[in-house]
Amino acid sequence: MSAPHLAPLDRTAAVAAIESAAAAYRNWGRWGDDDVLGTLNFVDDAKRLQAAGLVRRGATFSLSQAFDSHGPQNGWRRRTNPVHTMLDTGVDAALGSQGFPHGIGGADDVVFMPLQASTQWDGLGHIFDRGLAWNGRRAQDVVTSEGDLVTGIETTRDRFVSRGVLLDVGAVLGAGLGTGDELPDGFAITPEHLDLTIEAQGATADVGRGDIVLVRTGRLARARREGWNGYAGGPSAGLSFTSAGWLHSREIAAIATDTWGFEVRPNEFDDAFQPLHQIAIPNMGLFVGELWDLDELARDCHADGRWDFFLAAAPIQVTGAVGAPVNPLAVK
């Protein structure tokens, strides 16, 4: 399946490129004026049955990074790593200070964190385009101080179950770049790179309607080896702005990467911030996952030669949230 491509990027023309892409790939009204699910509408019962049929061995892989104080966040825009503390402990139980009868004791704990501190989904209320949210709604009518009143992440609580497809772009292209199975910082993954990866991996890597696509760049693997070093917000390989047409034409349900920002960093325009987000979320209604751990799954896919699997990735149902933590499970 070929995707319409934008004209070659002019680094000085961010506004024109964003306006053109928004008009070309906008899904507003496609599923009705009241829609809150965007591209998750591509996942139906038949798609979930297809995904269930991909389970052959029962091998299960968690695609989540840890949620702890050692995570990648550096405080940008008040994003910090999770703070986990105990409310009751075994020490309290041993001291008999909990006030419970007949020797029973217990432990309890609490976590304080930004909802996008680690592995997460961006909800449809996370990004706006020139004051408008998904489906053309005014941003101020969608997200207020009370949260996302329309497209809160809870609307997706039972929707992220589908066929998952891993595209290990880092491994396919990294060898030719002299970077092993990782892409260098600033590498922009174009539609041609995605198609080349699918061709190299074979038929089970083909991407179509309702799939959840996972793109491995190798950036997390390098962070594990060398330290975070700007992993959260710094330079990274990622999707090119020119991939917008590919994402739209494939009719995927969602896409997730092993990077902080999904798209290439620095961005491809001199004066822009996350322009592909600006097209994907409020205009396409496409759900974006970030900070996913794809390394163990990639090793298994290379070993068995199969790149698709059953994927369940429900977010925590935080009412009104514009993003939420997730522990995605891939089953092969």
Written description of the protein model:
Pfam families: Cyclase (PF04199). GO terms for molecular function: arylformamidase activity. It comes from Antribacter soli. This protein is of the alpha/beta class. It folds into 2 domains: 280 residues, 3-Layer(bba) Sandwich (Glucose Oxidase, domain 1), CATH 3.50.30.50; 30 residues, no CATH class. Helix content is 25%, strand content 17%. The protein has a 9-stranded mixed sheet with strand order 1-15-13-7-9-11-12-4-14, sandwiched between helices. Strands 2-3 form a two-stranded antiparallel ribbon. A two-stranded antiparallel sheet has the order 5-6. Helix 1 runs parallel beside helix 9. The longest helix is centred in the first third of the chain and has 12 residues. It starts with 13 loop residues before the first helix and ends with a strand. The N terminus is likely disordered.
> What's the CATH class of the largest domain, please?
Alpha Beta
- Structure class: alpha/beta
Number of strands: 15
Average pLDDT for all residues = 96
What is the CATH fold-level name of the largest domain?
A: Glucose Oxidase, domain 1
Strand content: 15-25%
Shape by Cα distribution = globular
Residue windows where pLDDT falls under 50 for at least 5 positions? 1-6
Largest beta sheet: what is the strand line-up?
1-15-13-7-9-11-12-4-14
Q: In DSSP terms, counting alpha (H) and pi (I) runs of 4 or more, how many helices? A: 10
Q: What does the main sheet amount to?
A: 9 strands, mixed
Rounded to an integer in angstroms, the radius of gyration calculated over CA atoms is 21 Å
Helical content band: 25-40%
Secondary-structure element string: HHEEHEEHEEEHEHEHEHEHEHEEE
- From the structure provided, what is the oligomeric state, counting identical versus distinct chains? single chain
